[in-house]
Amino acid sequence: MATEKVQVVVVGGGATGTGILRDLAMRGISALLVEQGDLAHGTSSRFHGLLHSGGRYAVKDQEAAKECLEENMILRRIASDCVEPTGGLFAALPEDDPAYAEKWVKACAESGIKTEELNIKELLKKYPVLSPRITKAYSTPDAAVDGFRLLWSNVNSARRYGAKMVTYHKLSAVYRANGAITGVELTNTLNGEITSVECQMVINAAGAWAGEVAAMAGLEIHMIKDKGTLLAFNHRLTNQVVNRLRPPGDADIFVPHGTITLLGTTSIAVEDPNSTKPSEIEVENMLNIGRETMPNIDNYRIIRAFAGVRPLYQANKGAGGRAVTRNFALIDHEQKDGLKGLVSIVGGKFTTYRLMAEKTVDLAAKKLGNNTPCRTAEEPLTQPVTSEMLERGKKVFGVPGYKKAAERLGDAYGKVVEKAEQDPSMRRMFCECELVSASEIDYVAKDGDSKTLSDIRRKTRMGMGTCQGIFCSYRTLGALGNNPQFTVGHREFITEFLQNRWRGIRPVLWGQQLRETQLSTGIFCSLFGMERMNDE
Amino acid sequence: MTQKHDKHLILDNCIKCSICVANCPVVKVTDKYAGPKQNGPDLERFRLDEPRAVHPSIEYCSNCKTCDVVCPSGVNVSAMNCKAKGEYVALHGAPIRDQVLGRVELICKAAQIAPALVNWAANVKPFRAIGEATFGVAADMPFPRFASRTFLQQYKPKKINNPKGKVLYYPGCYVNYYTPQVGLALAEVFAHNGIEMVVDSFNCCGLPTVSNGLTEVAKGYARNNVAKLNSYIEKGYKIITTCPSCNLTLRQEYHELFDMDTVRINNETYDAFEYLLMLHEAGKLDTRLKALPQRFGYHQPCHLRSVGFGIPSLEILRLIPQLEVHNLEAGCCGLSGSYGFKKEKYPISQEIGQNVVQAIQEAGVTQNITECGMCQLQINHLSGLPIHHPIQLLAEAYGLPSYLPK
Ligand SMILES: Cc1cc2nc3c(=O)[nH]c(=O)nc-3n(C[C@H](O)[C@H](O)[C@H](O)COP(=O)(O)OP(=O)(O)OC[C@H]3O[C@@H](n4cnc5c(N)ncnc54)[C@H](O)[C@@H]3O)c2cc1C
Ligand code: SF4
Ligand code: SF4
Q1: Is A234 in contact with B49 (Cβ distance < 8 A)?
Q2: CB pairs under 8 A between A and B
Q3: Residues A262-302: tens digit of each pLDDT
Q4: Which of A323-327, A371-375, A425-429 has the weakest average pLDDT?
Q5: Cβ distance of B46 and A515 shorter than 8 Å
Q6: CA torsion B179→B181→B187→B190, rounded to 10°?
Q7: B50 touches chain A (CB under 8 A)
Q8: Domain count of chain B?
């Protein structure tokens, strides 16, 4: 049982936790981030991917709107690889209250959100998928953000500053003595091994699990766990985020994201933060609302549905769902509960993760006697890939394969291109739907943090496209044989991978996706005979 | 055929089954090409955001359109590929060679100054060696021979009283410049059956141009051709082709590639044999045919298969007593227009064509027929055997001038 020693243990590898890790590291505070699954196991990869302009909150909460806008602008600057500056639009239909639109325009102006009224005719020409019933439309500075990539960029940057991070390690106990935190116990979730870490402080950034973590220290935090389901369409329906111009509700946002479009969301209170199973009824309800903005929505192929759980903080029990504040709360348990060394950061939005981290680390640093100022808003997360390297990548991976790989790999891009240049067989696209080359998969498999096929999937997007992993899964596994973690257990890897994919496909099993799944069943159950293999 | 499809919906139809990949003749013989699925529907998803999305291997697509035919989901793979090729060329520029090979019309017009001289020079070994080294034009692939006079120069319309139908014949570059005998034989057959046939000067259909990624040039041709064809259709003419690639391009490709409205052209354009078959079904075709006791191998051009009206020539030729036509059913011949003339593609093209060679040997035939001029060239090159257009056999069976070598 190895014992490590750091100043701060951060619990939770989501946007908030990774943001905190980087901020701590940049201020010279030694820190370890622990995550029970892969990075972004929680809500930060199960969200809408909208980098809010603030427009959605402008009418109800100008403070939140301003925060969003400011962070939106910061992230475009420091994380340009992770943000797609698509721009957004807010569109009203005849049934939407025109008075709201007026209020909205005014509130946006007051919050500093630039809006511009759009010519409906031109808009419909540009996006014939939109309803001809639209009465008013405005542009906003919304954007799309890639959660997974942003989290890894945070971690990679933090590691360069000396921070540590372990995935597949769950915080299983908190040690305290004399009213102060002294360390934590970690359980390896892959093999059950237990280790402990000495520390002066624990920062609880466990999102929807924050209550569970607090409970390990014998304390209580009231979280509302609010499940939201999203639908992933097979292609970009528009090239801009589309919001409904009315008070925020279900299924009123379409976000174009790389190759796909996400429609969401629903809002259902759940007990368990692991409740991420999308249901058919949610899908149906969302399509009913989405159809108002995009009348032909049923003709467009949906590749999967997935759900995440919003960690909403509730200072006083009672209110639920969308009425609860989206703002975050920083809880100093020393002040609140008399336990020194525990800080919880709860609630918030992905868009404002950096600000949440800044406020949290301000408090933590003060307690640790460190007064280095925060620099996370100024320093870019990654170094941009050189244009020479991009050109070289273009020759081996094509357009836009090279660009997608550069965005995903960041600093490691050069190595992946070089390998493909030297060995043409490494240029082959293992995942043809999302353009992931053999070279990229090989690199990621060897990076030290990839334990399962799903880990590789999240880092590369392999298996996240149209075919949902039918072909790339076995192709990849076959080529990973020279990596010790992938030499045995092929059946388990494939099963875990496919079951995860099918979980998302089941609620949208019709049309072309049904045909695709039939094909997949044929390949895996009949051709590979997986159905006949027994579980010995 | 409906022409009002949403191209994004078509991209959603692909279920990644890879049947197109398994059937692509190019993929079968080389691993240099990433295949129809990757360049077509896979990258099409990315084109919604990045119109120039293209795999570096796109130039290996020969535009044979086998992928379209085999796809069980109705995906127009090759049109996606052609557009991608256009984007690739717009991005990287086309080699001079492709710019020349793609403009068949220009080459042909230029050659008219002295066809005999061009024919001589085109097949002089040292010249070809220089051509290969400098421009990358495969030295071993013989160029087709220019006719001394074009079809349009030779054809004299015949006055027909009370015609059973009137047609405009679109000969295409190949017949006009290289094999005018095909057009002349057609004229005989039509006149014999009481069909009035007129001609006019048109642009190249643009298919070779598209295949070389010169999309904008092709679009210009398309506009001119569509306008002129429509003017004839308005006057009650049916449009007739003998070249399957021209047929496919006029009827489907202008719409697929350039979003032009060609519903009317599609409805009013016929392959010569398709038209003759219609006459026959209406009881208007003269079926008094003399016996031709001979055996021929028949090769179906890929583009004929792609237009999708079956093989009407075989049905008509069946009316000829004692004629035995053996359908080779060997798939793509490999030349695909200018493709096989390119140095780096010549070996691929020759290898694809081996199927046809084998089928000819197995069938034990010593002469062949096929509708497409380029297929004729390739099969003759591969097998050394004579090859003709089926219309020439029909003319022969009517006892008309068939322009077959005696
Ligand atoms: C459907 C939906 C759509 C959304 N859309 C948007 C949007 O478009 N824009 C936006 O800005 N926000 C959006 N949000 C909100 C946003 O996603 C979340 O606020 C944000 O991702 C939360 O990040 P986090 O780091 O706090 O939590 P998480 O990402 O959940 O991270 C917490 C992590 O802690 C880990 N953990 C928990 N317990 C332990 C333990 N004991 N030991 C180790 N690790 C542990 C979990 O595995 C998890 O990975 C959306 C939320 C949902 C549900
Ligand atoms: S284009 Fe057609 S044949 Fe090719 S993979 Fe898609 S569905 Fe299959
Ligand atoms: S057109 Fe022919 S060569 Fe091109 S991808 Fe399709 S099948 Fe292959």
Answers
A1: no
A2: 82
A3: 999 999 999 999 999 999 999 999 999 999 999 999 999 99
A4: A323-327
A5: no
A6: -100
A7: yes
A8: 2
3-state DSSP call for residue B253?
A: helix
Residue B77 domain-assigned?
Answer: yes
Nearest to B107 by CA among B226, B228, B208: B208
| In the predicted structure, residue A138 carries a pLDDT above the cut 90 | yes
Of A299, A435, A519, the CB nearest to B17: A519
Angle between helices A387-397 and A401-409 (to 10 degrees): 130
Question: Does residue B133 lie within any of the structural domains?
Answer: no
* Mean pLDDT of the region A182-202: 97
Separation between Cα atoms, residue A409 and residue A421, nearest integer Å: 16
CATH code of B338's domain = 3.40.50
Domain annotation covers residue B359? yes
Range of the domain at B368: 295-397
Dump the DSSP string for B176-233.
III-HHHHHHHHHHHHHTTEEEE-------SHHHHHTT-HHHHHHHHHHHHHHHHHHH
Residues forming a β-bridge with A231: A263, A305
User: Cβ distance B376 to B356 under 8 Å?
Assistant: no
- Predicted pLDDT at A323: 44
List, for residues A398-438, the tens digit of each pLDDT value.
889 999 999 999 889 999 999 999 999 999 999 999 999 99
Q: Is the peptide bond before A400 cis (omega within 30 degrees of 0)?
A: yes
Q: Which residues line ligand 1 (CB under 6 A)?
A: A 11-17, 34-37, 41-44, 47-50, 52, 170-171, 205-209, 213, 228, 230, 264-265, 308-311, 348-351
Question: Which of B92, B121, B149 represents a domain boundary (last residue)?
Answer: B92
Which amino acid is residue B131, in one-letter code? G
Assess if residue B403 is contained within a domain. no
Which of B56, B72, B92 is the last residue before a domain boundary?
A: B92
ipTM value: 0.89
Task: Give A441-461 pLDDT, tens digit per residue.
Answer: 999 999 988 989 999 999 999
Say if B120 is an interface residue toward chain A (CB within 8 Å): no
Cβ of B66 closer than 6 Å to ligand 3, yes or no, is yes
